[in-house]
Structures are given as structure tokens and as C-alpha cells.
Amino acid sequence: MSITSEIPARQNALWLAFRRNRLSWVGLALLLVIVCAAVFAPLLAPYDPLEQHIINRLQPPSADFWLGTDTYGRDVLSRLIYGARVSLVVGFVAILIAMVIGSAIGILSGFIGGIFDRVVMSFLDVMLSFPTLLLGLMIAAMLGASFENLVIAIAITEIAPFARVARAPTIALKQRDFIEAGRAMGFSTPRLMGLHIFPNMVSEVVVMGSMWMASAIRTEAALSFIGLGVPPPTPTWGSMIREGFENILDSWWLAVFPSLAILMTVLALNILGDALRDAIDPKTRAE
After folding, report:
1. pLDDT tens digit string along 170-187?
2. Omega into 199 within 30° of 0, i.e. cis?
3. Residue 274 to residues 72, 281, 287, Cα–Cα distance (Å)
4. What share of the chain is helix, strand, coil (3-state, %, to 5)?
5. Is 63 exposed, middle or buried (CB count within 10 Å of its CB: 0-12, 13-18, 19+)?
6. Burial, 212: exposed, middle or buried (Cβ in 10 Å; 0-12, 13-18, 19+)?
7. 280 exposure class (CB count in 10 Å sphere: 0-12, 13-18, 19+)
8. What is the mean pLDDT of the chain?
9. Residue 77 forms beta bridges with which residues?
10. I need a labelling partner for 71 at 20 to 30 A (CA). Which of 24, 55, 147, 199 fits?
11. Residues 251-274: tens digit of each pLDDT
């Protein structure tokens, strides 16, 4: 079956997976709400996220400030909406970079094989031996706190899993008849890997990307919590939780609402990841 003929089949499988799993619609709707809030933040935020109302500092949720104010009198709702931008952009960009680099490494390692494959996989095993947060912490600490360094740190932590996912099907696909036919016709190695192997595994990589984006958002929040994320005063969910942690007994809303935002985003991404996995898994479709 050609790649072009597989596209409608995958679309039908995705639609059937969403129909069988009604919870996936909840995840999709929840993620759309969060994305729309981030995109239209200037229109939806009632206040400037950096504007201080010192006279109204540490105010509980009210008609004027729906989610209360922080220690500087800044509106928590406005900062929460703008914080979604940072979390989503960091998560998406970091996972996209990790997906491209990791997939390229996995395909190249699996296709070449031999000593090169063993060396690359040994190096990736070393990276996988470190917990994601610990590895991200070390990289972020060495690079320093900034938006670009945060993206780089998270992307590096996610390269090894993507390489592992891309390598396994590459080893199986390079023995297939259409690859042997391509070799016989004189196709170059980059063409075989890019045009004939990668399209046959892209669905698995995308599904993993949707799931690991949730992990990237959690890592971003954790690094921001300990001060290695985007520098203040830019609002991020992790830094908002850190600010609220100091006043958790008296001003519970400072930490609770950003925590709920992270929870809902991660939950939505995991639900969608499960639906995408069901759509591409032949065993699940058969059931």
C-alpha cells in the first residue's frame, strides 16, 4: 500500500478512535480552550499581567479580580492566561526540536547499524539513565535562565526517547522489499531514510510527541519553580506556583490556580495522546 493511500485510512482510524473514546473529545475541547486563551490573551486578560495594584495585594477572588491578586497586586487570572503562552510555546518548540533531532538520530542509527548503532545507543542509554527533570536541571543550570536556554534544556532531555522510538521501526523497515528495490534503483541513503522510511513511522513519532509535550510542560513548570525558567517578571505557571508557595496558608489561590492549569493541560494532552495511539495501533483497531 502506498503512503498516499494510507493517509485516508489513518484519518478514518483517527475518527473511529475518537468516536469510540468519548473522553477524547473532552481532552480536545479542553486543549482548544487553553490554546485559544493563550492566542487571544490580550483580548481575554482583564488586566495587564505586569500591572501592579499594591493597594489590592493578596486579595482573594472577587468580582474585580476573579482569581485574586498576588503579592504585588497583579491579577492572577491575567498572569495565568499569559502564562499559558509560555508553557505551550516552550512545550511545543522543545518537543518539535527533540522530535526532529531524535528521529534523525534514530533513523540514521538503525539504518546504518553495526558499531555506529551500538555507540549511539550506548550514549542514548546514558542519557535515559538520568531522570528527565534532573537532566533538564543540570543543563538549565549550566546554560542559565532564559527562554531560549529553557527550550534547549527541555529539548535535549527528550531527544533520547524519540531516537529509541524511531530506531526500532527503521531496523524492521530497512529489510522490506521496497527499500531493497530503492537500493537496486540507485537511490541514495538520505533519500531512502527521508522519503521511504520516515513517512512510515511518522505517526508513531507524532503520537509520542503529543504525550511527551505534557512531560515538557511539567518540566518547564518545575524548572520555573526553582528559578531556572523564563526570568521574571514574565508570568509562567511554575513561577506563579513558587510565589504562591510562600503564602500557601494565607493566600491559597496563588498556587492552586496555576497548579490546576498545569493539571488540565497535561490531562488534555495525555487524553489526546491515548486517542492518537488507539488510532494507529492495529491491535486496538482490531478490538
Report:
1. 888 887 777 777 777 877
2. no
3. 41, 10, 15
4. 75, 0, 25
5. exposed
6. buried
7. middle
8. 84
9. none
10. 147
11. 899 999 999 999 999 999 988 887
Return the CA Rg of the chain. 22
How far, in Å, CA of 165 to CA of 204, rounded? 8
Q: What 3-state DSSP class applies to 75?
A: strand
139, 75 contact by CB (below 8 A): no
> How many Å apart are CA 179 and CA 187, to the nearest integer?
9
User: Which cell numbers hold the place of 171?
Assistant: 531496523
Cell numbers for 282, please give them. 492495529
Confidence of residue 13 (pLDDT cuts 50, 70, 90): low
What CATH number was assigned to the domain covering residues 7-33+76-286? 1.10.3720.10
**CB atoms closer than 10 angstroms to residue 131:** 10
DSSP letter at 46? S
DSSP string, 239-268: HHHHHHHTTTTT-THHHHHHHHHHHHHHHH
Query: Which of residues 240 and 144 earns the better pLDDT score?
Result: 240
Residue found by looking up cell 525558567 in the block: 229
Quote the CA–CA distance of 45 and 154 in Å, as a whole number: 28
Cell numbers that stand for 46 in this block: 482583564
